[in-house]
């Protein structure tokens, strides 16, 4: 498939994925995922953990981030300019937050760190570790750069209803190491 065809395929997949996620989004399902996510990240106590502040209908990792902040540094992504990788600002449950790019909240005072374990939001995933994001390539660039430096664990966090048979992938797309949903953990 040529580049234009792949972009169109991904655009259609994103539209369908937004609708699927909206249909399955609920506080109860989000809460059900917490124990599964916590079971994965607890094995990495003391390492710098990146979560995210949920936007739209994303499943929330905030309870896990709060629990892990007692065991080591936790950070959240800060989106910069298009084409740049993400930067990660230290986060605590008590820190003052301000609205950042795309409506995602970020710490008002930012001290940047590099995570070793990332909880990654997504629109759709497949069992091979494929991830469909929002289309900016921020996580792909970021994961590639971090993985060039050291082992970096990428954990996709989503509702089980966001699973698809196959995510359309480009050579620059970074695969997930695990996917966690309200139904359990799948290691790739």
Automatic annotation (TrEMBL):
Kindly give the Pfam families that the UniProt entry links to this protein. 5-FTHF_cyc-lig
Q: What is its EC number?
A: 6.3.3.2
What catalytic activity is recorded?
(6S)-5-formyl-5,6,7,8-tetrahydrofolate + ATP = (6R)-5,10-methenyltetrahydrofolate + ADP + phosphate
What are the alphabetically sorted keywords of the record?
Answer: ATP-binding, Magnesium, Metal-binding, Nucleotide-binding
Concerning InterPro entries, the annotation shows: FTHF_cligase, FTHF_cligase-like_sf, NagB/RpiA_transferase-like
Domain of life according to the entry: Bacteria
Keyword Metal-binding included in the entry's annotation: yes
Top EC class, one word: ligase
Residue span of the signal peptide, if any? none
User: Which cofactors are reported in the record for this sequence?
Assistant: Mg(2+)
What the record says about family reads:
Belongs to the 5-formyltetrahydrofolate cyclo-ligase family.
Q: Which NCBIfam families match?
A: MTHFS_bact
From the Swiss-Prot or TrEMBL record, give the protein name. 5-formyltetrahydrofolate cyclo-ligase
